[in-house]
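Problem statement: downstream parser choked on a complex file, so we are re-checking the raw output for the pantoate run. The parser issue turned out to be on our end (a line-ending mismatch), but while we're here, posting the original submission so the record is complete.
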Amino acid sequence: MRTVHSLKELRTILRSYRQQGKTIGLVPTMGNLHEGHVSLVRKAAEAADIVVTSIFVNPMQFGANEDLDTYPRTLADDQDKLAAAGNTLVFAPSADEIYPEGLARQTKVVVPEVSEGHCGASRPGHFEGVATVVTMLFNMVQPDLAVFGEKDFQQLAVIRKLTRDLMIPVEIIGAPTVREEDGLAKSSRNGYLNEEERAIAPVVYQTLTSVAAQLEQGRSDFDDLAREANDTLAKAGLRPDYFNIVNSQTLKPAIEADRELTLLVAAFLGTTRLIDNLSVTR
Ligand SMILES: Nc1ncnc2c1ncn2[C@@H]1O[C@H](COP(=O)(O)OP(=O)(O)OP(=O)(O)O)[C@@H](O)[C@H]1O
Ligand SMILES: CC(C)(CO)[C@@H](O)C(=O)[O-]
Ligand code: BAL
């Protein structure tokens, strides 16, 4: 497995794979890889001949008070995990390689509606940063397909929409959330949790499953359910950011007639912000 840091090297290698008629799958990540990421690489390897995993902590999607500087950078460990998972090529560019003129001069991709609300409301500019870098990665790698985790549910919706709207010829594949045994969604940011916080963290998924069960049993007083969920999170020691019950396609607030619902949650444990979601069919 090779690792390249420059766009020039990336293009040279990919040109040769394309000339051999190989299909290319892309797995965009920010590194500090865990089994969730590995599942995306495996899925990409099942569907494409060549898997390119990008590792780039994208400054454009971080707010001024967020964890850009402390985000874990663990390239050597990541390379070991990727090689074992069947990855072909790692693309690990510097910020200068991606944004040579700096962020202020960067053209932006703005995705309306699905970017609004939820994480989009709590992290202004975040999805512009994600949409822009993902569009750039699509242009740099020109993959046949790309795999993203359902853990970042709103992000996946944003990427599906921009791919359709900009007519980018890439198949977008969603992959299910990989969890710890106690239900906590695997996430690089779980590493920020101290022992006490880690013991509380599974309450996020427990709350999702409890609300999902009540929806399946026919409850449709969505506002009350969301309020109760926020209370449960707060009582456990979390600081809820949002708990929203939405239409799974539009990500707009659910209405009685909706059959496919998704519960979206973000909550802080200390300074760590956890997100998760669960979909329900009624
Ligand atoms: N537990 C998981 N299961 C499946 N996919 C995941 C999981 N966690 C992350 N992913 C996916 O991996 C890709 C890269 O995500 P990223 O590098 O941000 O990982 P992360 O662990 O979610 O990090 P963070 O803690 O910053 O959110 C995204 O498509 C994301 O949805
Ligand atoms: C898709 C992504 C790699 C874009 O920076 C990032 O948002 C992530 O890791 O989910
Ligand atoms: N997993 C989404 C990347 C971010 O939180 O910035």
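For whoever reads this later: Residues 126-141 form the longest helix (16 residues).
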